[in-house]
Amino acid sequence: MTVAYPLIARRKKDGIAYLACSLYPQARRRQIEALTLYTTWLVCWDDAVDANEGDLAGDFMQAERWREQTMRMMREALAVDETNMSEADDDPINGVFREFGARFCQTAPNDQRRLLYDEIQFFINSCAAEQKLRLASRIPDYEPYMKMRIGTVGGRMLCSLVPYATDERLPAALSSAPEIVHLWRQVSILQSLMNDMLSLKKELRTDCVINAIAAIMEPGMSLDIVVAKLEERMKMAVNDFDDAANTTYKNS
Predict the structure, then answer these.
(1) What domains can you pick out in the chain, each with its CATH number?
(2) What gap in Å lies between CA 43 and CA 120, rounded to an integer?
């Protein structure tokens, strides 16, 4: 791993391994080592186009080329197409993902690799939509914002890796059940709202605050009222998660 690369070097003391362990507490050593690489890639990749940190934050076309380069690399690293080979890629951040992919592909079946690829593509496309809004200084309304935010928070990607982390193979009928998709959505909503409330202060330093608080706020509405509204939505997500989990348990 190229730890001297600036976007990677600045994260060396961030305890990313602890983050991976908190996300996947049941993972064994082999899996958690690979998932730590994945989490490192995710954090560093996101930093590259982040409004507060990234070199690509202000250049949509250059960021778009890098997103396309990343997705080409993903197909090879995840062995989605066995005969498909991407061009040489010396990007240090994508190099971290290649290390993860080599380990992941040792045990992950094709459908699991394809699912992760699709979820990463959803994440990257959502990041592009967010960057376009930020550069245009446009803050969307709450509902379209959350549709996009569910992608940018990366919750579905993280959920798709749970079977790998626990070294289990879910039956196809269960892994594609509507209730599983609903579970992932509620996880993403909870991640999004919690992160947005915690990161608002940092995001106020940017020219355009694309955040759930800004999206739901209306003239004359106090910050306390906004936070209360978001807390209520988090409670709804918890209840919806429990309902979907109970349905999944009964049907399995």
Answers:
(1) 16-251 (1.10.600.10)
(2) 13
Report d(CA 18, CA 23) in Å as an integer.
Answer: 9
The tally of CA atoms less than 13 A away on the side-chain side of residue 3 is: 4
N residues, the chain: 252
Running DSSP on this structure, what letter comes out for residue 86?
A: P
Give the pTM. Answer: 0.89
Helices then strands, each counted (H, E), the chain: 13, 0
Mean pLDDT for each 10-residue chunk of the chain (252 residues)? 53 79 94 96 86 74 93 94 62 90 95 94 96 91 96 95 91 82 96 94 80 94 95 98 91 76
Neighbour-count burial of 106, counting CB atoms closer than 10 A to its CB (0-12 exposed, 13-18 middle, 19+ buried): exposed
